[in-house]
Amino acid sequence: MSETVTIPKVEYERLCAIEEDFADMMAAQLVEARIASGVEEFVPAHVADRLIDRESPLRVWREYRGLSQSALARASGVNRVQIVEIETGRNSGSVYTLRKLADVLEVAVDDIIPT
Predict the structure, then answer these.
(1) In 3-state terms, the chain is what percent helix, strand and coil (to 5)?
(2) Comparing C-alpha atoms, which of 110, 108, 61 is closest to residue 83?
(3) pLDDT digits over 50-104, tens only?
(4) Whole domain around residue 49: which residue ranges?
(5) Which of 27, 55, 62, 68 has a CA-to-CA distance to 7 between 20 and 30 Å?
(6) What is the pTM of this model?
(7) 5: helix, coil or strand?
């Protein structure tokens, strides 16, 4: 036979709120640890605004990292013309190409795929 406990609804809701607060604190600590270890980075508002405005994510990240198209081409081994075509939307780029660009920009491939 199982044991049961009856408590007022107000007390139950208070305990649920405490549990939710605890889960939020644990999630915040995880993010803080990822930031401290360098796994996560803060993205400045002007970068986020450009991405939200649907500007080419490859261009936004390239410029944020302070790279010209030529410098990104040299660092990634991707032809500069391909970079231009991806930034202008004329070409989407292969997964292999996007991976090389993302690696140099230190972002996930998903971060440079246009939405």
Answers:
(1) 65, 0, 35
(2) 61
(3) 999 999 999 999 999 999 999 999 999 999 999 999 999 999 999 999 999 999 9
(4) 45-112
(5) 27
(6) 0.71
(7) coil
